[in-house]
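ok trying this again, last paste got cut off
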Amino acid sequence: MIYFNEKTIHKRVHMALACLLTFFFMTGFCRPADVAAQPLIATDLVFMTEQYPPFNFEEKGRLQGIAVDLLEEILKKANVDFNRNQICLTSWTEGYRRALKEKNTIVFSTTRTPEREKLFQWVGPIAPTKIVIIARKDRSLKIHAFDDLKKLKIAALRDDIGEQLLMRGGIKSRAIIVKEKAEDVIRMLEAGTADAWAYEETAGLWLIKHMAADPGNFAGLYRLDEGELYFAVNRKTPEEAVKKMQNALNDLKNEKAMDGFSVYERIFDYYLKPRYIKDRITDEQAMQMVQRVARDLAGDASGTISRINAGEHPYRDRDNPAFYVFMYDTDVTMIAHADNIKMVGRNFKGKTDVNGKAFRDEIVAKALQNGSGWEDYIYTNPSESGLYYKTTYFMTARGSDGRMYIVCSGKFKDHQGLFH
């Protein structure tokens, strides 16, 4: 399924203190990340993961995936000496239980749930996740409600979210076929000794594709839950280290590179396609937001821009952070952004989304030609991890300062055919 520079004098003091500390490496096969020279993370971190593609997996002897690539960038941003060979690839059960018990241990990718909330500290979210019931198509299983699962022989991995969701729904632990390895479950599904598998849909079907004799005969039949994947951090790990990692991840999502999109967007796009989601925002609400801002600019351009950049309601909806306004000038420079202040002041002429579309240029050009309209592109959602198809309404507006602005507000799409 982040960022810092100390003032020189403080850095020298902290480094001197760090040299006096003795750090103890944790037991086990995994080698800890060397952070002794980093005063904000004065500890040794151990990273545990499993084969869980496309979030974390080994292929051709190299660990990779959305979470692995992100972790490397997070620690680079946080100035921590690290390389991905220090990640321990093991079973989910071992990684999960070590992260529960051992200080400074991190396991990923972990679905954040109410049951797990107080067991760990959390860094994320990394990516969206959907846990489903996977079964063979030729079994023609009919699953219309959760109670239908109680009639089936369902397999799950020990300590996995699939097992926990089955028990949350009322299925006794003794009625679940619990295994340590995904390969064992897949073999049982093929042999017919298990009817179904409770697991993450993308990861499960990827593993089946690489392990089953007839991968096309499998499908996700029933949704158990949807959520977000995180790095789960042992609760005794220093909070400052966790905050530093979280800040680094936030920056990787918000800071746009020279090509116009963030490191997070680049990594996510490499492994997974954008998604459609059902948005609470309607076309009418987006248009009304833009029209309101246009009126506010006409009355007080400077004050309106300041309030937008401060993320004040209604320019950034207090109940739905994904509903916000942003503005360009006629040269495609970001003048105001209610959700991401890091973009303000940057010129985005020629900068694209991950699909190569220079949508900002399109917005400005169409606004100057037609006055208003809609533009479709791929973007992140501040309320959820991942990449999504988005459409934005835009309109030209003359401010009280005499300048021309292009005011925008958008929504995420739930179906390809509904694009403008």
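PB: full thing came through this time. Residues 8-126+228-271 form a domain with the D-Maltodextrin-Binding Protein; domain 2 fold (CATH 3.40.190.10).
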